[in-house]
Amino acid sequence: MGMTGQRYSGELNGPMEQRRSGVGRVLAGLRLAAVSAVIGAALAALVVGVILKDVPVLATGGGVLALLVLLAFLGGRRGAGRDTPPARRTALARIEDLRATGGETADVPVTFRLTVAPEPEDERPAYRVKISQSINLVDIPAYRPRGIAVVEYHPEKPWDVRIVTRPTPEWSRRAEEAQIDSAPESTLVGDPDGGAGAWCLLVLVGLLAGAALVVLSFRGELFASGDAGGSAAKESSSSSASRTFSTSTTVSGPSSSLLTFGRMRVTAMELEARVDSAYVTSLRIEDHRMAVRGDSARPLAETVHLPSLPYELLPGLVREARATLGVREAESWRIDVTPGGGAGVGPRVRVTVSGTEGTAHLDADVTGRITDRRAVGVS
């Protein structure tokens, strides 16, 4: 079953098919970008309509989304109603090259480069394809470069090829007798949808472009609304009465100690959200408990700013206090953070450890630098 008569036809048709495939991919990309932009614009219109309480904008965004969902549903129904695609067909293929890419199990992933020779009734010239298929370790010696294998392929998706590991006796005989010439590299086919990352990026760009277009169209109203909201918030804050607050939380579960890396900051942010203020007058941290106190009437210079504290340095201070202050078996520890003594002075950090020997503490600044030590028995 030679392919000499088909080689020239394959060399002519290969570039032409590649050009058609390239044009088709460009058109598909433009269509996908346009649909993504429309979806992004519709979603942005919904958000803008809610913020501005603009019913026409809200209705437009919702209507476009509903229309797109309807079109997608009808398209799916139409696709489901089409005739079933033709069944896979059997052919012979020349093994140009093969390479095993693993070997930890009985089925080994193998990458094949094949020249597929469709049957004459398919009216398709021979072409090259690269596939990956798992082959049983026992069967691998049966596949070798320049050997002939029985394959199945999809007529409408020529890149969808798989090797038939257990062919019928007739196809086995044909494979033993066949002589197939190599197809030129220009006939190599590939899955046009293989670049999934590029398509995802195109969808993301389309969504952002559509959303940006809508937001920029209403930027005047949006920014004016934001400024008005900010002014109202400032007036409300200035007119509200001062308040004092205090709250605490206890952590539990695996690795529940607040000395676990990152746990202190997460817990502090939870307390900040609970009291609705980032400025407190004191912060106390124990092994499984954290508590804050605050007074909204206090000047900012006399408060502690929770997000800016060096929580990642505090476990090191606890370890230092346990190891150097004469408490051999520390039964408990705590950290107290209080405001500095005046303007320009950062918060003070005091670590206290207690054990059978007594109580000791060390002081540090907001950078974690130790400024004072009081060991057990030192007044």
Helix content: 25-40%
Sheet with the most strands: spatial strand order: 6-9-8-11-12-13-14
Q: Whole-number radius of gyration? A: 36 Å
The helix/strand series, from N terminus to C terminus, equals HHEEEEEHHHEHEEEEHEEEE
Shape: elongated
Structural class: alpha+beta
The low-confidence runs, each spanning 5 or more residues with pLDDT under 50, are 1-12, 225-240
Q: What do the pLDDT scores average to?
A: 81
Assembly of the depicted chains? single chain
The number of helical runs is 7
How many β-strands, per DSSP? Answer: 14
Largest sheet report: 7 strands, antiparallel
User: What gap, in angstroms, lies between the N and C termini?
Assistant: 102 Å
Strand content: 25-35%
In short:
By secondary structure, the chain is an alpha+beta fold. It has helices at residues 4-52, 55-80, 169-177, 196-217, 219-239, 263-275, 314-324, and strands at 89-100, 107-117, 127-136, 148-154, 157-163, 244-250, 279-280, 282-286, 289-295, 304-305, 330-338, 348-355, 358-364, 370-374.
Please provide a written account of the structure:
This protein has 379 residues and is an alpha+beta fold. It is built from seven helices and 14 strands. A hairpin with a 2-residue loop joins strand 12 and strand 13. Helix 1 runs antiparallel to helix 2 and helix 1 runs parallel beside helix 4. It is elongated.
